[in-house]
Design goal:
alpha/beta; Rossmann fold; 2 domains; two-stranded antiparallel ribbon; 8 helices; 9 strands
Length: 245
């Protein structure tokens, strides 16, 4: 079930109801008056909700789609939030150079309270934007990676579909794959990053001081260690048991 929250000027919030009704809005209120960053604007509803619920002192948003959301601009202008809200469009979260340049200009010496990443849900780009933004969180600040377990859910759904097939349908599916010769290269899932960050917490709690999991998102808490632009998650991951192999 998805929650649709309409915010007057045709802004629609699409979030899983459980996360939207509890963790998301609670997090906004806990950090009321804070500095928020959002990766992935979608239809603009979550940005508007954060501006309303959290009374943000600053809010930055980065979106892959190049076309601006007129409804979101109208919402911001109608409430005099132009000095609070800044949105950049046509920004790929996996483009380290561009994202770093924009973030440096937007954030300066300030510190971010919460980052919400609801963008690509792909391992490589998500890791890149995490490495750019995580050092700019204040100690105790939070980085939320949404839908970290999409791959697990997709696999479970595919297994359920396969089990529901008749023997004839299963044979036909295998025959189609054999005829087309399609070979799908398995990409590493986003959950790798979640496991990496859990390993970082275990070995370097001054870098990652907490990791909390739910069905909808993983919340990573920033530790007190100073981190610079050269921060890379891999430098702090020691996967001796081989969880990521």
């Amino acid at each position: 079930m998805r929650l649709r929250l309409r915010l007057d000027v045709d802004l629609v919030l699409h979030r899983e109801a459980g996360f939207a009704q509890r963790a998301y809005r609670e997090m906004l209120r806990e950090h009321s008056g804070g500095f928020f960053v959002e990766l992935g604007i979608a239809e603009g509803g979550s940005s508007a909700l954060a501006l309303l619920d959290a009374a943000s002192r600053r809010f930055l948003a980065y979106e892959l789609e190049a076309n601006r959301l007129a409804a979101l601009d109208e919402f911001v202008d109608s409430r005099g939030l132009g000095d609070v809200f800044t949105a950049h469009y046509g920004v790929d979260q996996g483009d380290r150079e561009t994202l770093s340049r924009l973030v440096s200009g937007d954030v300066g010496d300030d510190r971010i309270d919460v980052v919400f990443d609801d963008a690509s849900h792909i391992l490589g780009p998500t890791r890149t934007s995490f490495e750019v933004l995580f050092p700019r969180l204040r100690p105790g600040g939070l980085f939320v990676i949404e839908d970290w377990c999409l791959d697990v859910r997709f696999h479970a759904e595919m297994v359920a579909v396969f089990k529901a097939m008749s023997p004839e349908e299963r044979i036909a599916a295998f025959q189609e794959q054999a005829v087309t010769g399609r070979e799908v290269k398995a990409e590493r899932p986003l959950m790798d990053l979640a496991i990496e960050l859990l390993l970082v917490q275990g070995g370097y709690p001054d870098v990652v001081s907490g990791v909390r999991f739910s069905e909808h998102g993983v919340v990573v808490e920033r530790g007190p260690r100073p981190l610079d632009d050269e921060f890379r998650v891999a430098d702090f991951v020691h996967d001796t048991p081989g969880y990521l192999n």
